[in-house]
Amino acid sequence: MKSVKIVKIGGNIVDKPEALQNFLENFHKLEGPKILIHGGGAIASKLSKDLGIEVKMHNGRRITDIETLKLVTMVYAGLINKQIVAALQQIGCMAVGLSGADGNSVPATKRAPNPIDWGFVGDVEPEKINAGFLETLLDAGYTPVFCAITHDSNGSLLNTNADTMASSLARALSVKYSTSLVYCFEKDGVLADPDDDNSVIPLITRESYRELLEKGMIIGGMIPKLDNAFAALEYGVEQVFIKHADNLLCNKETLLKL
Amino acid sequence: MKSVKIVKIGGNIVDKPEALQNFLENFHKLEGPKILIHGGGAIASKLSKDLGIEVKMHNGRRITDIETLKLVTMVYAGLINKQIVAALQQIGCMAVGLSGADGNSVPATKRAPNPIDWGFVGDVEPEKINAGFLETLLDAGYTPVFCAITHDSNGSLLNTNADTMASSLARALSVKYSTSLVYCFEKDGVLADPDDDNSVIPLITRESYRELLEKGMIIGGMIPKLDNAFAALEYGVEQVFIKHADNLLCNKETLLKL
Question: Which of A72, A223, B44, B55 lies most in the core, judged by the most C-beta atoms within 10 Å?
Answer without folding.
Answer: A72
